[in-house]
Write the structure tokens for this entry.
Amino acid sequence: MNNQHAEGDKYSKYSEEHLNEFRDQLRYEANRAILSWPARIAAVLLVTGSLITYSNQFGQNPFAIFTLFTYSIPITLIVLYPFLTLIFSSIEKFGVFVLDFLCILGLLGFCASLQLIFIGAESEIVQRVNFQYLQGQIAIVLTIGTAFAFHSSFWVTILRNMLFTIVTSIAIYIIDTDFFILNFLPILEGFFMGTIINWVFYDAIRARFYLKSTDADARQHLYNQLSKLVYSHQLERIKLGDELENTMPLKEGKAIINVFDVQRSSEIRHEKTQDFFMGLFQSFLQICMKGYGHNPLRSRAFRLKETGDGFISSVGYPFLPVDSRSLADSAVSTALTMFEAFNREVEKFNYSRPIKGAMGLAYNSVQGTFQSGGIRSYDLFGEALIQASKYEELRKQPVLWEIFTEKANEMGMKDFNILIIQEVVYNSLSPAYRDLFIEIDLNDESLTGKNFQMMYDNDAKYIYYHLLE
């Protein structure tokens, strides 16, 4: 019992907190009742009641023919309501009051039938027979007239039912005082039975509204959380019934991989180091997602993964670039934009010592894949990833670092960001971007004499680098 009471309080509180939505739900329920089987059955019942009353009064009551029309207004309104809503759609906003109007018209129609039956009685004996015939109908008619309401507050429904009962009682009293006195108890029974039935329907609607709304909230929450794991085009395809594994490219392709790393990141000592990297990677993600769209899939770059103090992205696969420039131009442009974002984040971080980054770009084959089990996250593998990582790590080679720092000193830079690119990327650049880079001949005696070897790219004859403040 306590659990049921708690559930009822929960439904009531939720309906009060979401009153506008609850009212909309009640308007919908009221209009559905008028447009569907409840109102149609009510119309059939009214027609049937009129025909039965007419057949009983035919031949003995001069006003019998008029009993066929006592419910004509509510029947007509029920029949015409679907057409009225098509012509005047705003009527649906008042469905709750239209239903109340139909109920009071039905009760007044019953009173009109009483008036016709009583004034047409030819003798006191016929009147008594009419009393007995109609006495059993009072309670059921009033119950039906008060049992259906869709007001957001049940107190309004109670007041509405009291008003309907009082109006019906006054009408019956005016028609025939003796009949009213005989049926005073059935009138009360009709009021209470109708109100009780109304409460059952009202409570059921509240419960359905709560369950429907909370289920929608839960589904929206799940959707919002899932959107953090997959792209919007994946969500749309999954909603249409597609499998997750079919939402991203899996065939082998070509791409330029960008591997970013913070130089000497392990030496950073700050209470907000994690916040710095979170802000940095969020900025990189925004750059990658610029121009994101599908049909076909495209964006400035594809964020592959974050590696603590590093960020890996790809240009050309699985998303096509957003502009018509060469893949190499797009990749270098994106890399330079990332360095700009990196410098802004470093400036906001306000660290006591310079913080610089390094990037490596390499072009080669890649392929998409979903993990074989567990959480099916999307990943890339292929030569391009390995090579881009090795190009970024070239800065750690002492012989190359000496070249980089010497050039930086010539440019007046003590600390610097560095972008190192593969030969094939450089050769694919437009002249404006090529001019940014400095060439290193891997066959130069300064390198070969120190036993320098290019890992994972044995065909490379040159590497190219660009130094930035």
Notes: Residues 231 and 454 are 37 Å apart (CA to CA). The longest helix spans residues 184-226.
